Amino acid sequence: MRNVYDIIDVDKGELPVSFDVVLGVETFILGFDYNETGDFFTVDLYKSDDEGEEVPIVLGEKMSLGAPLWKDLVMKELPSPTLVPLDLGGEQRRITYENFGKTVFLYIDDGPPEESEDA
Q1: What confidence score (pLDDT) does residue 112 get?
Q2: pLDDT tens by residue, the chain, 119 residues
Q3: How far is Cα 23 from Cα 82, in angstroms, rounded to an integer?
Q4: Could you tell me the CA-to-CA distances from 10 to 52, 115, 118 in Å, in that order?
Q5: Predicted TM-score of the model (pTM)
Q6: Which residues are CB-contacts of 68 (< 8 A; sequence separation ≥ 6)?
Q7: Rounded distance, CA 12 to CA 105, Å?
Q8: Short-list 104, 107, 100, CA closest to 13
Q9: DSSP secondary structure string, the chain?
Q10: Distances (CA, A) of 30 to 2, 5, 69, 112, 117
């Protein structure tokens, strides 16, 4: 298992919110929202076209603890690093409004850790 992950920091107080994120060598726009009735978060994925307009790639992806986003999709437009919501402490069973951003975070998993020269 990786020892270090990058976190995509989402301010729950600003929802719905969207912002640019560099994933791999490309810049994507991630949009986040919260469904109060179902107590879950969703993620929208966009790219900017040549005119700067947001072009949707995937809309309304439900975040599930430990499940990579877009895991069931095969599309060349998806980012190469895996985005996965995790609780590295292993205390949570699902993502809730209360634990997201406290013990559960959206991580960028760029792949297996690099092997050291001594290994």
Answers
A1: 58
A2: 444 579 999 999 999 999 999 998 999 999 999 999 999 999 999 999 889 899 999 999 999 999 999 999 999 999 989 999 999 999 999 999 999 999 999 999 876 555 545 44
A3: 9
A4: 23, 31, 37
A5: 0.85
A6: 82, 83, 84, 109
A7: 12
A8: 100
A9: --S--EEE---GGG-SEEEEEEETTEEEEEEEEEETTTTEEEEEEEEE-TTS-EEEEEEEEEP-TTPPTTTT---TTS-SSEEEEE-TTS--SS--TTTBTTTBEEEEE-SSPPPPTT-
A10: 24, 18, 12, 24, 36
- The Cα–Cα gap between 105 and 99 comes to 9
12 CB-contact burial (10 Å; exposed 0-12 / middle 13-18 / buried 19+): middle
Where do we find the tokens 């060349």? 76
Q: Residue ranges per domain, the chain?
A: 6-109
Residue 102 sits at φ, ψ, to 5 deg, of -110, -60
